[in-house]
Write a structure and sequence with these properties.
The protein is of the alpha/beta class. The chain is about 30% helix and about 20% strand. Strands 1-2-4-3-5-6-7-8-9-10 form a ten-stranded mixed β-sheet, with helices on both faces. Strand 9 and strand 10 form a beta hairpin.
Length: about 325
């Protein structure tokens, strides 16, 4: 009987391990929902006619599940001089797992100061809170706006941190923050205004869990994510709970679409060091975002826990897998290069 009980227990734990591995791996593939991708033009204003209540303050790209239901909302902020549609494949991957992703086009061209972008992103969130999103979604798809998650890439990651830290007031509470290879400027001491990094450990007290995703090639010349103002420093300054995942062999724009057209699109290939095909990096970033959101928004930790326990399930090699848990200092694993 004792041997039989031990065998049953071992079989149970083996099955549990297989389920965890499968769960963590599945997050890097498209989810069970079909998706829609739509563009919404910004409200037109003039001196004689104020902006329509129905129109957003900035043009939007919206990826949403096509199946009827209520889904959490994620706002995704594009990188410096990028177009929001450069991330359409990434956004649809996240949406296929049961999230509505709203990606505003914050500007066409911009200088170093991000204050205007912060205000514009806050205005988009306020528009969401006012109920403007519902008319832009597929039939019977409803946004859950009890809270909103914010994500951003590169300079958009900096703007996401700025919003989370209260540089502009918003009408919705923050559920989670995800920064994808965030950049705070050219170098320490050369941060773009307003500076976010303080160079003090655990000084960024975001009122929500934080995920920071980094790239191993982003700091190589020409550095699109320079050392000292990018992902490692952002994570170092995050208070718990926070986590940090770094894709060793990929560059700063490798999570974008396979094809990015126009002069800006060509620049995403020509300027930043790349690891080659973008699909593996895009699957990793989207899957990591979903795993994090599932834990902290949906209360389902198994996907993120699976990545934490078995990083090799990711479609890319991870050079850092770090978790800073609430009530502890840093609990992490640095994998060999």
């Amino acid at each position: 009987m004792a041997a039989s009980a031990r065998f049953t227990a071992l079989a149970y734990f083996y099955c549990l391990l297989l389920l965890t591995m499968a769960s963590a791996g599945d997050v890097f593939d498209h989810g069970r929902h079909g998706t829609s991708l739509s563009q919404v033009q910004e409200a037109k204003t003039s001196r004689c006619s104020p902006a329509s209540v129905a129109g957003p303050p900035k043009p939007l790209l919206i990826a949403a599940p096509s199946d009827a239901g209520e889904y959490p909302v994620v706002v995704f902020l594009h990188g410096y001089l990028a177009n929001n549609y450069f991330y359409s494949q990434l956004l649809q991957h996240v949406a296929s797992h049961g999230f509505i992703v709203v990606a505003p086009q914050l500007y066409t061209f911009s200088g170093p100061d991000t204050t205007g972008e912060i205000s514009s992103a806050a205005a988009v969130i306020d528009w969401l809170a006012d109920g403007g999103l519902s008319s832009s979604l597929p039939p019977n798809v409803r946004p859950n706006l009890t809270a909103v998650s914010i994500s951003g890439h590169s300079r958009g990651g900096k703007v996401a941190f700025a919003l989370a830290l209260g540089h502009a007031r918003t009408s919705l509470p923050l559920a989670a923050l995800i920064a994808v290879d965030p950049v705070d400027g050219m170098a320490p001491g050369r941060q773009t205004p307003p500076p976010i990094l303080t160079y003090r450990e655990a000084s960024l007290r975001v009122p929500a869990p934080v995920m920071v995703i980094g790239t191993g090639l982003g700091a190589l010349r020409p550095p699109c994510a320079p050392l000292g103002v990018s992902h490692a420093e952002f994570y170092h300054e995050c208070a718990a709970p926070a986590c940090h995942l770094v894709a060793r062999d990929y560059g700063h724009t490798d999570m974008m679409d396979d094809v990015t057209c126009g002069a800006k699109g060509l620049a995403t290939r020509a300027v930043c060091k790349s690891g080659g095909a973008r699909a593996p990096m895009r699957r990793f970033v989207a899957g990591a975002m979903v795993a994090f959101l599932k834990k902290w928004v949906d209360g389902r930790p198994e996907w993120l826990d699976g990545i934490r326990e078995r990083p090799e399930v990711a479609p890319v090699v991870l050079s850092a897998v770090e978790f800073r848990d609430a009530g502890t200092r840093i609990h992490g694993v640095m994998l060999p290069a």
